[in-house]
Design goal:
With 80 residues, this protein is mainly alpha-helical. It is built from 4 helices and no strands.
């Protein structure tokens, strides 16, 4: 008999959270975080991706996938 494994059930409270959960670019990071807490360097090492990518995805995830800046200016951008 074949054993079937199922993915955990995830629910979103907002449309932005739903977009993030459905965005396949974040699936590896979200799967890794579901296994337990870890620092960004550990996650990057586990996934074989640059540390900067993990930081970017974590920041975007904290904003619910909105992609909006959180008050910080982008590097190299002058402005008030």
């Amino acid at each position: 008999m074949t054993q079937v494994t199922t993915a955990p059930v995830l629910t979103a409270s907002t449309p932005a959270q739903a977009r993030l959960l459905l965005d396949l670019r974040y699936s590896s990071l979200l799967q890794r975080l579901m296994r337990g807490e870890a620092g960004a360097a550990e996650i990057a090492r586990d996934l074989g991706v640059p540390l900067g990518r993990v930081h970017h995805q974590a920041r975007t995830g904290r904003r619910g996938g909105s992609g909006a800046r959180d008050g910080a200016r982008a590097r190299g951008v002058d402005g008030p």
